[in-house]
Design brief:
Number of helices: 16
Distance between the termini: 27 Å
CATH topology of the largest domain: Rossmann fold
CATH class of the largest domain: Alpha Beta
Domain Glycosyltransferase subfamily 4-like N-terminal: 15-177
InterPro entries: Glyco_trans_1, Glyco_trans_4-like_N, Glycosyltransferase_grp1
Helix content: 40-55%
Keywords: Transferase
Number of strands: 16
Protein name: Glycosyltransferase involved in cell wall biosynthesis
Domain Glycosyl transferase family: 199-355
Radius of gyration: 21 Å
């Protein structure tokens, strides 16, 4: 079986969807599925990668409201189909360029699997996204109507998704997975550097993500005020950095909370390996799954995460049994959950071990790839045509 994936970007571009696709393709190869991927590239002229990874790239010219601008994408899609000769397309959404599959004849002739990573939801009250979604939604629904099967990443997200509501019958839940081998153990020098950043004799809390309003890092900063003996490192860059820096100064927490900006993979692995707990304080369903929760499992670290209604974040924590959940946006309860783990090293070890076991058993990329490969072989993808599906 040959499958062409269509995504936004590919590593070294940093992002949850991007890392997942990079992990998924070789895992699918192990399941007997020959895979390639078409993505945008902001730094190349496009074309096909010279290595054996089968990465096709379409030149893009920046982004508008998170959407890559790539006039050449439909031509690259046709060429990738012509060259790779896939049996089906696997479209990763949200991604406006995936809509070109509806107008490229060679794409229309193939069955489609849609991987629903997240709804398009308003991020931090941005009214531009509400207006843009009015234009986006008809294309989104038309693409879903022509799909054969849809993969949702958690039961709560599927149940809460307004976009997927008309198409529940063709949805299947397959959680995201992680290739533990991609996250290398830090070398001694990197571990020592991480230890220096944390300092001695403190409770080490790590938070990772783009500095956006929906990530809730301001609530974590407020919680830090009630956590003596705690050191919090927040890794990531984004437009909320000035506001978060101002909040740190206002609360006088500059010595206990540090905004570290973007960090390399090697630095990230050092911080994950040496932290006491990972915190994901997100506020909205824009945080659909929380792949960083799986990265905490890789290093056997407990987590404290927001139980966001309609999101997969709380579901992942409960399924893995590797942490505590709190109401989103409640800094007082967030501080209480972190304090409970600060005072109980034995419980931290127990939760961390549970996460490591969950990664081996359920949330590893091999398990995800196996489920997706089985889905590819379902009769729905062999017998039905897109026109038949769209007319149901």
């Amino acid at each position: 079986m040959r499958v062409l994936h269509v995504g936004k970007f590919h590593p070294p571009f940093a992002g949850g969807m991007e890392n997942f696709i990079a992990d998924l393709l070789p895992a699918l190869e192990a399941q007997g599925v020959c895979s390639a991927v078409l993505v945008h590239d902001e730094g190349r002229a496009g074309g096909h990668s010279p290595d054996a990874s089968r990465i096709y790239r379409a030149r893009s010219y920046g982004r508008v409201l998170y959407a890559p601008v790539s006039p050449s994408f439909p031509f690259r899609l046709h060429r990738a189909i012509r060259d790779f000769r896939p049996d089906l397309l696997h479209l990763h959404l949200p991604n406006t360029s995936a809509f070109w599959a509806m107008s490229v004849p060679s794409a229309r002739a193939l069955p489609w699997v849609v991987h629903w990573h997240a709804d398009v939801v308003t991020r931090g009250g941005d009214p531009r996204l509400d207006r843009a979604y009015r234009l986006y939604r008809p294309f989104e629904q038309a693409l879903l109507a022509r799909s054969h099967l849809i993969i949702a990443t958690s039961p709560p997200y599927l149940e809460a998704s307004r976009a997927l509501a008309p198409w529940q019958a063709r949805c299947r839940v397959i959680p995201l997975g992680l290739d533990a081998g991609r996250l290398a153990d830090p070398d001694p020098a990197m571990r020592e550097d991480a230890d220096r950043r944390w300092g001695k004799g403190v409770f080490r809390v790590l938070a990772v993500g783009r500095l956006a309003r929906y990530k809730g890092f301001d609530r974590l900063i407020e919680a830090a005020a009630a956590l003596p003996g705690c050191r919090i490192l927040i890794v990531g860059a984004g437009d909320q950095e000035p506001r978060l820096s101002a909040r740190l100064q206002e609360l006088g927490l500059g010595a206990r909370v540090e905004l570290m900006g973007f960090r390399s993979d090697a630095e990230m692995h050092g911080l994950l390996a040496t932290c006491d707990v990972l915190c994901l304080p997100s506020l909205e369903r824009a945080e659909a799954f929380g792949l960083v929760l799986l990265e905490a499992m890789r290093f056997a670290k407990p987590v404290v995460a927001s139980d966001i209604p309609g999101s997969g974040v709380g579901w992942v924590v409960r399924e893995a049994g590797h942490g505590l959940t709190t109401a989103p946006g409640d800094a007082e309860r967030l501080a209480a959950a972190l304090r409970a783990l600060q005072l109980d090293p034995g419980r931290r070890r127990q939760l961390g071990d549970a996460g490591a076991a969950a990664l081996r058993i359920r949330f590893g990329i091999a398990s995800t790839a196996r489920a997706i490969a089985e889905l590819y072989r379902l009769p729905e993808l062999e017998a039905a045509s897109p026109a038949e599906i769209g007319g149901r």
